[in-house]
Amino acid sequence: MPRLNAARKHTIDFTLNGKAVSAEAENRMLLSDLLRHEIGLTGTHVGCEHGVCGACTVQIDGKPARACLTLAQQVRGSDVRTVEALAPDPAVLSPLQAAFRRHHGLQCGFCTPGILMSLDALLREQPDAGREDIREHLSGHLCRCTGYATIVEAALAAAEEQRKEETPNA
Amino acid sequence: MKPASFDFLCPDTLEEALAALADGGGDARVIAGGQSLVPMLNMRLARPSLLVDIMRLEALRRIETSGDEIIVGAGVRQAELEAWTDLSRDLPLLAAAFPWLGHVQTRARGTVCGSIAHADPSAELPLSLVTLGGAVSLRSRKQKRRVEADDFFIGMMATDLAEGEMIEAVHFPKARPGCGYAFREVGRRHGDFAIVASAAIADEKGLRLGIAGVDDRPRVFPLPALDNDQFDDAINDIAWSLNARDDIHASARYRRELVRSLGRETLKEASRCRA
């Protein structure tokens, strides 16, 4: 690939929430800003911009990752999922989102998109995830409202529900 | 909190990457996972003129066993080494260190060699490499060289890496039967950089204690056997030799106390694992 000049925008092709997208960005643009400002998906929130708070967490190739610590250039050819991909329909919440609502897993909601993307990846990779696994994944996120206990309860409920759905006769 | 502008190159061959680094002088930087470099870019503590993305170079994305060493290429992500099937058998110290290393979300992207190159004085991977007595393979357009870990880290976020050079791989000595390993740290929040981190190895020759977060680089010390009368004095001498400083995270006195307590705990655990 040729050297990409700093002064210009360059095309970045990748998969976003299951669809092929082609976006224009300067080399210095962060993935978080590409999603919000170029593509218009503002569900991914931007907190600290140095990888501490976890609000901007998205999934890159199935793994939770900080969008603010990823250059847009680095996702060329990757599969990126954001919080917008979770709900199956604008009027229907995903089971994890619904559990957050039921268990008061959010108050102001600023940290929620990032936490949902981490927990969604965890429950997919480890359907039997327990309290400790959930807490371990949450350690990469800051929430200043809930005190985390309701988030853990919501995640445990979603995991339980997911297990029931997968083994309906058990 | 946005990076300053830079050119970007994503080369298809190592030769192309090395040529770009050579031509870029000191202003060109390698980017791999970006988990150390992008925060530096965001805060504009680093303002490179060119970033060379090495993640498409398949040759660097391998974990290999060669004789007594495990060689981890510059493109291997931390999560990939963490999930490596032989980790707990061949690199038990790293298996113990990984849970302390950042978060799931940063290990998924960050590379092993990237953390070594960043050389944060409190980071877990540099500490593990130094304690194990590992080495770093450096490569430039003109030459290849191997530097012992203890010589590679020369100060606060400073390494022996020369202009135009990049880390090609790191070499971790493979665990030997009959050796014990332990790792612990204290930080403000799980996954944060450590206030003090401690790694210990117990083998037939004695004990080795590695300490990060106190001096300007990870340091390693040989120690007498645990039941030796001079053991407590020896560990206290280490705590005082480490050039501890006060900062917003902890006082020098607290750091020395952590060296004594974490040091003792990890050495005990390593000795128990050996027995």
From TrEMBL, chain A:
It holds the Pfam family Fer2_2. One of its GO terms (molecular function) is oxidoreductase activity. InterPro entries: 2Fe-2S-bd (IPR002888), 2Fe-2S-bd_dom_sf (IPR036884), 2Fe-2S_ferredoxin-like_sf (IPR036010), 2Fe-2S_ferredoxin-type (IPR001041), 2Fe2S_fd_BS (IPR006058), Beta-grasp_dom_sf (IPR012675), Diverse_Oxidoreductases (IPR051452). SUPFAM superfamilies: 2Fe-2S ferredoxin-like (SSF54292), CO dehydrogenase ISP C-domain like (SSF47741). Gene3D superfamilies: 3.10.20.30, [2Fe-2S]-binding domain. Transmembrane segments: none annotated. Residues 10-86 form the 2Fe-2S ferredoxin-type domain. Keywords: 2Fe-2S, Iron, Iron-sulfur, Metal-binding, Oxidoreductase. This is 2-furoyl-CoA dehydrogenase 2Fe-2S iron sulfur subunit. It comes from Shinella granuli.
From TrEMBL, chain B:
It comes from the Bacteria. Residues 1-177 form the FAD-binding PCMH-type domain. InterPro entries: CO_DH_flav_C, CO_DH_flav_C_dom_sf, Diverse_Substr_Oxidored, FAD-bd_PCMH, FAD-bd_PCMH-like_sf, FAD-bd_PCMH_sub1, FAD-bd_PCMH_sub2, Mopterin_DH_FAD-bd. GO terms for molecular function: FAD binding; oxidoreductase activity. Keywords: FAD, Flavoprotein, Oxidoreductase. SMART domains: CO_deh_flav_C. The keyword Flavoprotein applies. The keyword rRNA processing does not apply. Gene3D superfamilies: 3.30.465.10, CO dehydrogenase flavoprotein, C-terminal domain (3.30.390.50), Uridine Diphospho-n-acetylenolpyruvylglucosamine Reductase, domain 2 (3.30.43.10). PANTHER family: XANTHINE DEHYDROGENASE SUBUNIT C-RELATED (PTHR42659). This is 2-furoyl-CoA dehydrogenase FAD binding subunit.
